[in-house]
Specification:
The chain is an alpha/beta fold. It contains twelve helices and ten strands.
């Protein structure tokens, strides 16, 4: 089985690295200094589950040079998924699949529009990881788990084969019994951390320790829970409590990718996270006042990062 990792950052670099470490055939799609470091010095992963260094690794910025790909792990940002899907199309082997790994609930549908639903497997990961430097991934914590499945939640040979490859790499794998519920459960966890973290500029340990910001996290989760239920998603009754328990189990220094991107003045996934809660809430007829305030508060920074408005700090 041949894997291609589209987006070799904290998520793609870590999981692709673990697969390659186990002997799987993996090609990393990357750009700029990160690509050059991968090609010259390989991939270095610093992890709470054990450090490792792979050299050489197969890495390119040109999908057209790839051999036929059985599984493409789509780990790019949400606004890049349609472009990446089009780039994957010619290289995807007959029967091949694209696994979406974005933090959000809309990306699988965007990729399915480009490739057809039968070629897409919705998925998610639970990990706090980031690019520490060119060719260097730092895994700070979280279970480093991989959850995915068919749209209809039925078992299939391709899902079993992919799951086996991940298990051989020592990765905790779950084939979802209800993939939509799994996506929304992750959404319920990560979006409040991103929004409240970006507005407060504080790490997770502070957010959960201060009563004021802890209540903001809970309120944001409650809004998402209400939207999900209104849309027919079968989240468990204790969904918010489970998400807060997960918050309490994470590293104190952890921050979300959205928070880091906004702080660094880079384009973020604000539209796919907080913006999606507002949009889907409107569709479901569910008020989302906290997410609306967070979204509107961060929108000027997002638009500045995208060159749409200009102002100084």
């Amino acid at each position: 089985m041949r894997f291609a990792v589209f987006g070799s950052g904290g998520v793609g670099g870590y999981f692709g690295g673990r697969l390659a470490q186990s002997g799987a055939k993996v090609c990393f799609l990357a750009r700029g200094d990160h690509l050059r470091a991968l090609q010259k010095s390989g991939l270095r992963v610093e992890s709470v589950h054990g450090d490792f260094h792979l050299h050489p690794v197969e890495a390119t910025d040109d999908p057209g040079t790839l051999e036929a790909v059985d599984v493409a792990l789509l780990a790019v940002k949400t606004w890049q998924v349609q472009e990446a899907a089009e780039a994957i199309r010619p290289q995807l082997a007959v029967g091949g699949a694209v696994v979406t790994l974005q933090n959000g609930v809309e990306a699988p549908y965007l990729v399915a529009q480009a490739l057809g639903q039968e070629r897409v497997l919705p998925g998610l990961v639970r990990i706090f990881s980031q690019v520490a430097g060119p060719g260097h991934i730092r895994h700070l914590g979280g279970p480093a788990s991989f959850t995915f499945g068919e749209w209809n939640d039925e078992p299939s040979e391709r899902v079993q084969a992919i799951a086996d490859a991940f298990r051989q790499a020592g990765i905790n794998v779950e084939v979802a019994k209800d993939i939509q519920a799994a996506l929304w459960e992750k959404f319920l966890f990560v979006v409040p951390l991103g929004g409240v973290g970006a507005v407060s500029r504080a790490p997770l340990g502070v957010l959960r320790a201060m009563p004021e910001t802890r209540r903001l996290l809970e309120q944001a989760m409650e809004e998402i829970f209400a939207v999900a239920r209104a849309l027919g998603v079968r989240l468990p009754d204790e969904g918010v409590q489970r998400a807060m328990a997960a918050v309490d189990a994470q590293p104190a220094a952890a921050t979300s990718s959205l928070q880091r991107d906004i702080a660094a003045g880079r384009p973020s996934e604000l539209e796919a996270w907080t913006g999606a809660v507002v949009r889907l809430g409107e569709r479901a007829g569910v008020p989302t006042p906290l997410h609306r305030v967070i979204y509107h508060s961060l929108l000027p920074l997002e638009r500045r990062a995208r060159g749409e408005v200009q102002f100084s700090d």
